[in-house]
Amino acid sequence: MMEEKLNKDVAKELLMILSYCDNTFINNIPDSFFIKLNKLASTSTKEYYFDKDKSLLEQNISDDTKDMLSLLFYMYGSDNKTKDDIFNHWCINEQD
Questions:
Q1: Of 55, 67, 85, 90, which one is least surrounded by beta carbons within 10 A?
Q2: φ and ψ at 83, to 5 degrees?
Q3: Range of the domain at 13
Q4: What value does the CA radius of gyration of the chain take, rounded to a whole number of Å?
Q5: 30-69 pLDDT per residue, tens
C-alpha cells in the first residue's frame, strides 16, 4: 500500500504535514523513509498550505495523503490497542 500511494505530490504534502507533528512520532519514522519523501517531493510543483489554527480533519488534504498518514501512525505512532482499533476500522472500510 505504501509504495502505490506514494508519489511526488503526496510526498510533498506529507512532508508539509509531518513538519507540524510531535517529534516523538517523527523520531520513530525511519530516516530512509524521509530520504525517499524528500527525493520525491523535490520534483513536485504543487503548493500546499497547512492552517495551524485548524485540526488535521479540517485541512484540505488528499485521500492518498490521509491514507499515508494513517499508515505511518499505525506503524510508528500507536500502541497495540490503537493498532487493533485502526486495523478494525480499515477492515470495516474495505467492506463498504
A1: 55
A2: -60, -40
A3: 2-95
A4: 14
A5: 999 999 999 999 999 999 988 989 998 899 999 999 989 9
Quick one: DSSP state of residue 57? Answer: G
Nearest partner of 62 among 13, 28, 16, 8, judged by Cα: 13
* Residue type for position 84: D
Three-state SS for 39? helix
Among residues 11, 81, 86, which one has the least CA distance to residue 43? 11
State residue 93 phi and psi, 5-degree precision.
Answer: -65, -35
- Predicted TM-score (pTM) of this structure: 0.82
Q: In angstroms, what CA-CA distances link 75 with 44, 49, 55?
A: 26, 25, 22
d(CA 10, CA 64): 7
Q: Is the dihedral of CA 95, 61, 56, 25 positive or negative?
A: positive
CA 10, 68, 24, 39 torsion-angle sign: negative
